[in-house]
Amino acid sequence: MAKLFKMTKRRVPEKKGVFDQYVQNTTVYLLLLVNTVLNWFRLGLTQAEMDKWEDYKDEWIALYPQYTNLDTRTTAITKRLNLLQKSITNFMMPLLDRFAASTAINVDDRVVFRIPKRDKQPTPRAKITTIPFFDLKQIGGGQFKTRVRTKEDASRASMHPDADAYEIRYIISDTSPDSVNDMDKFSIKKKALDILDVDVKNSGKTMFYCIRWVNLSNPENSGPYSIIQKTTIL
């Protein structure tokens, strides 16, 4: 029997070595006779589709060794193989979508073709208790480049796994507000790297601001606000 693959989000693998195994093993699996019924027929393929699947497999196994052998690999061979891999992938994907939607699909099918069962129950997200690590960088003209990250991502911008966005709450004023409730403006950002525009007409003025992670579908699970900070708008 064909080697079984672990289920993954991507059905047709990209790495050529894994792709080679996938093409060969799925073909063998489709041609298996189980309880007097061929797997390809049970899964709803037509004879023409199964023939095409086999033709692609034969074309691939004839060309792939020329690529893996460094003595025969050339730019032309590599280009042909890349185009063939793309064609096979484009051929397989809609058929795999049909398998995924079929009532005939079973556990072995899902593993072989890397079709995970969709979780129909969304995982509840916990209440956020942390504050974003936040950079506000002046770029002039009343604009700032915003950058957030979690504690775990020390070197790159990132979003909290339980947040849909982050909120920047701010006020342009000569005096510091007593609390976030006194801030009259806010901006919701869904990208870890973004731009905050507070209007060029406010250049030279002082802006007080704070930030928090936001759960848009369940606001009660949004995180706490950071301390109030200030900056001069350029």
Summed up, the helix count is 5
CATH topology of the largest domain: Immunoglobulin-like
Order of helices and strands: HEEHHHHEEEEEEE
Oligomer: single chain
Compute the average pLDDT: 91
Count of β-strands: 9
Describe what this molecule looks like in 3D.
By secondary structure, the chain is α+β, with helices and mostly antiparallel strands. It has helices at 16-30, 39-42, 47-68, 75-101, 107-113; strands spanning 33-34, 37-38, 133-140, 143-149, 165-172, 185-189, 193-197, 206-214, 229-232. The chain folds into two domains: 16-113, no CATH class; 133-232, Immunoglobulin-like. The chain contains five helices and nine strands, in the order αββααααβββββββ. α1 (16-30) runs antiparallel to α3 (47-68) and α3 runs antiparallel to α4 (75-101). It starts with 15 loop residues before the first helix and ends with a strand. The model is unreliable at 1-8 (pLDDT under 50).
Short description:
Helix content is 32%, strand content 21%.
What is the fold's blueprint, element by element?
Blueprint: H1 16-30, E1 33-34, E2 37-38, H2 39-42, H3 47-68, H4 75-101, H5 107-113, E3 133-140, E4 143-149, E5 165-172, E6 185-189, E7 193-197, E8 206-214, E9 229-232
Antiparallel strand pairs: 1-2, 3-4, 4-7, 5-6, 5-8, 8-9
Descriptive keywords:
2 domains; Immunoglobulin-like; 5 helices; 32% helix; 234 residues; alpha+beta
